[in-house]
Amino acid sequence: MMDGILAEKRNENDRFFLFVVDNYFKDKDLAKRVPAKPEDVIKFIDVDPHEPTTEQIDTLRDEVLSTKGLPAGVIGIGGGSIMDIAKAISLMFTNEGSSTLYQGLNLIKKPGIYHLGVPTISGTGAEVSMTAVLTGPVKKLGLKCEWTVFNQVILDPELIASVPVDKWLYTGMDTYIHCIESENGILNNAYSHAYAEQSLKLCREIFLDENAGQTAENDDKLMVASMMGGLSLTYSEVGVCHALSYGLSKILGEKHCYANCLAFQHLEDYYPEGVAEFKQMLVKHKVKLPQGISNSWTDEQITAMAQVAYNLPHMWNHAIGTDWKEKISIDLIKDLYKRM
Amino acid sequence: MMDGILAEKRNENDRFFLFVVDNYFKDKDLAKRVPAKPEDVIKFIDVDPHEPTTEQIDTLRDEVLSTKGLPAGVIGIGGGSIMDIAKAISLMFTNEGSSTLYQGLNLIKKPGIYHLGVPTISGTGAEVSMTAVLTGPVKKLGLKCEWTVFNQVILDPELIASVPVDKWLYTGMDTYIHCIESENGILNNAYSHAYAEQSLKLCREIFLDENAGQTAENDDKLMVASMMGGLSLTYSEVGVCHALSYGLSKILGEKHCYANCLAFQHLEDYYPEGVAEFKQMLVKHKVKLPQGISNSWTDEQITAMAQVAYNLPHMWNHAIGTDWKEKISIDLIKDLYKRM
C-alpha cells in the first residue's frame, strides 16, 4: 500500500525518499517490507537514549542535504519519537538555520516537504497532532504549526509492535492523559470534547474493562483512541501533567510517556477522577510506578524542572485559567515535583 | 476568518472565486457577510425544487468557464445539497464532458480546483464525506473519489440556520441513520465504529435525552455528530435505508433526508434497535411521518424505485453480505416500498 502512495510523489525535488525508522525494526520483518528504492536513504534511529533533539534534526537535515539533496518526502515508521523526527525534519528541509529558531507556535516560515507517518505503537497521538516536540539547549517545545501535520498517515494495527506491558501501558496512558487534560480546561469545546469522550471510552475498554489487555482487537482500538486523543488535544490543550512531564524530560532525560505517568499519579488535586481511574489501570496490569524518587533529586534540579514547567504558559492558561499566574508559582510547582 | 483563508488561494487560475450559496440566505445577514470581491461570482441556488442534478452542475460549470474562466476555488455555503454542488463542480471544472460520465467510484481523472465547505445545517455529513451525490438521467449516484473531499471546512455552529423542527429532525436523522447503517454491515471496522459510537451518543443527547432540542449547545453537538457520522460511513458504507431512499429521490423527487426517514421507519427487520430508537425521537419532537403513501404509487413507480435501489450493490453488499443477491430481489425490495 505504501508503495502505491509513494509512487505519486517520487518525482518531486531530488527524487529520493528519506525513511526514518525506529532502530528496533532493524533486523525485523518490518524493515524488509519498507518499500525503499536504491536511491532512497534509510536511517535507523535509536530512540532509547534520549527524546528527539534540535541538534539531532539539524545534523540529519544537513547530512542529507549535502550528500543527496532535497528529498521528495520523508516517511517516519515507529513510535512517537520517530513521528516527531519525521515531522520536524520535513519542516527543517525548507526552513533555514537551526530548529531551535522555530520552537514555538507558528514560527515556521514555509511548508515542509511531503511527509508520511506510519505509527508502530499507539498512544502519543503524534501521528495526527500539529506539533513536533524537540528538546533543545534551552527548552523542550514543539515546532507547532499547520504544516507540521503529516500529509498522509497509514494506520495499520498489524504494524503495532509487540511491546512489554509496561511500555504498552505508559504509551497508552499518554492518550488517556491527553483526554483528561483536554477535557479539564478553558479551551475544551464540542469538538475536542467529543473526541476525548470517545477516546476515553476506548481507553477503558482497552485498559480497564473485562476485555482489557494486549489483544488484536485492543490494538485496533488503541490506534483509534490514540488518533482521537491527539485530535482532542490539538483542538484544546494539554495541562498540568504535560507541563511537569516536560520538566522531567528536559532536566532528567525521562522519556515522555513514562514521565507523564510519574507526574500524573500525584495530580489528584487537579484531576481527581482521572488520577483515580489511572491508578486502577496500573493495578489491573500490575505495573508499579516508583515512589519517593524526588528524594534523590537536588533542590537545583527540582528548581530547574519547575522553571521548565512554569515556562509553558499555554498549558497553565488552559488548565488553571487566564489568571493562572495568581495561582501557580515556581514554589507550588516545586512542591508538586517533591510529591514524586 | 474565511477572508483570511481565501486570501492565500485568490491568485490561482483566473483569480476569482465562485460562491455557491443556498438561496435561503439571499436576503439574510449571512449573505452580507460572504467575503466576495467584485471579481467573484456568487450564485444563490434554490435547493428546494430538486436535489442536485448532473445537468445543473454541467450548466453552471459551462456558464462560469465561458464568461469568467477557471475559478481559483469554489466555496459552498449551505446544507447538504450545496455541499454536494460545491464538491461536484470543483471536480467538473477540471474533468471534461458531462458529470454523468463520472457517477461512480474513482471515475474522476484529475483533482478538482480548491473547494471550501461552510455547512449551515448539520446532519448529512456532506462536509466531510468523499462523495458528491448527483441525480442524473440514468442514476442517482455520487462522484466518489479522494479528490471529492473538501480542501478545507469551516465548522461554525453560529452559522447554523434556525430551521423548522421537522427539517432539523430529518437532517439530524441522516446522521443517525448513517451511524446505524455504518455499524450494521461487513465493512464496519474499529475506525468507523468509534466514530459511529460517539456520533450516536451525541444524537441521543441532541434528540432524545433530557436536554434534547434546538439549543445552542445542541447545535454545537450536532455539527460534531454530523462530521463524525460522515467519517464513519466514509470508512464503512451505508445500507438498506439509503438504497431505498435513493429510489424515492430518483423516481418521486423526494429530498434525501426526508426520504431516508420515510424508508427507515419500516426497516425494523434490518435495524430493529435503531428503528425503535428513531421512532422515540420522532415522538419526542412530535414529528409525524406520513403513513400509507405507497397506496398512491403505481406498480410501475414501485418497480422503478426497486430497480434504482437494487442497482446500488455496494450498499447491499455491506448491509446483507457478499451473498446479498441470494437474499435480496426486486420483489423483496418492492415489498419494502409497499410498507411505506
Give your account of this protein's structure.
The structure is a homodimer. With about 350 residues, chain A is α/β, with parallel strands linked by helices. Helix content of chain A is about 50%, strand content about 10%. Chain A contains 14 helices and 8 strands. The first copy, chain A, has helices at about 1-5, 30-35, 55-65, 80-90, 165-185, 190-205, 215-235, 240-250, 255-265, 270-285, 300-310, 315-320, 325, 330-340, and strands at about 15-20, 40-45, 75-80, 105, 115-120, 130-135, 140-145, 150-155. In chain A, strands 2-1-3-5-8 form a 5-stranded parallel β-sheet, covered by helices on one side. Chain A has a 3-stranded mixed β-sheet with strand order 4-7-6. In chain A, strand 1 (about 15-20), helix 2 and strand 2 form a beta-alpha-beta unit. In chain A, helix 5 (about 165-185) packs parallel to helix 7 and helix 11 (about 300-310) packs across helix 14 (about 330-340). Chain A is globular and about 55 Å long. The termini of chain A are far apart. The mean pLDDT of chain A is about 95.
Secondary-structure map:
Two copies of one chain form a homodimer.
Chain A: H1 2-7, E1 17-22, H2 29-33, E2 41-45, H3 54-67, E3 73-78, H4 80-92, E4 104-105, E5 114-119, E6 131-135, E7 140-144, E8 152-153, H5 165-183, H6 190-207, H7 216-235, H8 240-252, H9 256-264, H10 272-284, H11 299-310, H12 313-320, H13 324-327, H14 330-338
Parallel strand pairs in A: 1-2, 1-3, 3-5, 4-7, 5-8
Antiparallel strand pairs in A: 6-7
Helix pairs in contact in A: 3-4, 5-6, 5-7, 5-9, 6-7, 8-9, 8-11, 11-14
Q: Would you summarize the structure shown here?
A:
2 copies of one chain form a homodimer. Chain A is of the alpha/beta class and 340 residues long. Chain A is built from 14 helices and 8 strands.
